[in-house]
């Protein structure tokens, strides 16, 4: 936080990392929140969605360590470690698994065959 009360966060993207001033908003339905939370532009850890997708895509094709090296070559900065990339992939897999489980439970409530 700087002297005027604005908090800065480092945002990591495919174009590198930069400081971003977070502004707080009062939202009736969510309480205090930030612009980035409201617009859902970032993944966990102040990471852009495209950076997360890039990391996950290449993690399916190479090791986490190799993906971290590829990111550094592409962006010119060591943005993510192999452990961070692994955590990202595992968290996304758990999220997708939960969605599938919820969907399959919803689907079982519907009849398998149309009644005719």
Give a short synopsis of this structure.
The protein is an alpha+beta fold and 116 residues long. 48% of the residues lie in helices and 22% in strands.
How would you characterize the overall build of this protein?
It is a single chain. The chain is of the alpha+beta class and 116 residues long. The protein contains four helices and six strands, in the order ββββαββααα. The protein has helices at residues 35-39, 49-59, 64-75, 82-109, and strands at 7-13, 16-22, 24-27, 31-34, 42-43, 47-48. The strands form three sheets. A two-stranded antiparallel sheet has the order 1-2. β3 (24-27) and β4 (31-34) form a beta hairpin. α2 crosses α4 and α3 (64-75) crosses α4 (82-109). It is flat and about 60 Å long.
Question: How are the SSEs ordered, and which strands pair?
Answer:
Elements: E1 7-13, E2 16-22, E3 24-27, E4 31-34, H1 35-39, E5 42-43, E6 47-48, H2 49-59, H3 64-75, H4 82-109
Antiparallel strand pairs: 1-2, 3-4, 5-6
Helix pairs in contact: 2-4, 3-4
pLDDT under 50 segments (min length 5)? none
Q: Averaged pLDDT, please?
A: 80
The biggest sheet, with number of strands, parallel, antiparallel or mixed sense and barrel status, is: 2 strands, antiparallel
Count of alpha/pi helices: 4
Helix content: 40-55%
Defining key terms:
alpha+beta, about 120 residues, 4 helices
